[in-house]
Amino acid sequence: MAEVAWMNEYNKIRTQLLKATNSDTLSSRALVVDSVKTGLNMLGKQLDSMEKKPSDYGLTRAKVLRRRGMLDNLDRQYKSAQAVKNQNLTTETTTNSSNSRLMQQRATMKEHGSLIEELGAGVSRLNQKSKAINEEANLHLSLLDGMGDDIEKANRGLIEETEHAEKVRQKNKTFW
After folding, report:
1. In a 3-state reduction of DSSP, which class is residue 59?
2. What is the pLDDT of residue 130?
């Protein structure tokens, strides 16, 4: 029975949290987010008891671990919603701060723009160097191709001279 009650409470809190994150009004969102924390604490205490003696609640160790994962996930969602709530409250109460933040963002964007321009210039230099390397590599390839042809000619010449020398040696052999 405690198993079903825990799941019902979990689903109720999860639904409240979803409504809070989808709510358009800050005040209703803040109230729901705060009530969710109370429910999370209660579920956490019940789950602590279940972890100590799962058999008393008709649960297996695996089911308790699965519930711990579910509760941890819901807690992360709560913390995310809480952060949004705090950010919205801060934004709502400090308009001067938002103007200051906007100016800071513009300055950061301007700085990023100049860094991007420097990066672009560096990329252009790399492009020019890569083209020069490509031209030099092509020159080396043509030189190597020419050397290959010359080596083939020299090799053919050596073979012909070797054959000629062998013929001469054979001729000389017949005279002796």
Report:
1. coil
2. 95
**Is this structure's pTM higher than 0.70?**
no
* pLDDT score at 135: 94
Total residues belonging to the chain: 176
Please list, in sequence order, all residues whose beta carbon lies within 8 angstroms of the beta carbon of residue 50, skipping any fewer than 6 positions away: 2, 6, 57, 59, 64, 67
Low-confidence ranges of the chain (pLDDT < 70): 1, 21-33, 84-98, 174-176
Per the rule left: phi > 0, alpha: psi between -120 and 50, beta: everything else, 94 is: beta
CB count in 10 Å sphere of residue 42: 13
Per-residue model confidence as pLDDT tens digits over 9-32: 888 888 887 777 666 555 555 666
Q: Residue 92 and residue 70: Cα distance in Å, rounded?
A: 33
pLDDT the model gives residue 160: 95
- Please state at what angle helix 26-52 crosses helix 61-93, rounded to 10 degrees: 160
Cα–Cα distance for residue pair 75/38, rounded to 1 Å: 11
Using DSSP's 3-state secondary structure scheme, residue 50 falls into: helix
- For residue 33 the two structure tokens come to 């987010």
CA–CA distance, 32 with 109 (Å, rounded to integer): 37
Q: Tell me which residue of 42, 45, 82, 48 sits closest to 64, measured CA to CA.
A: 48
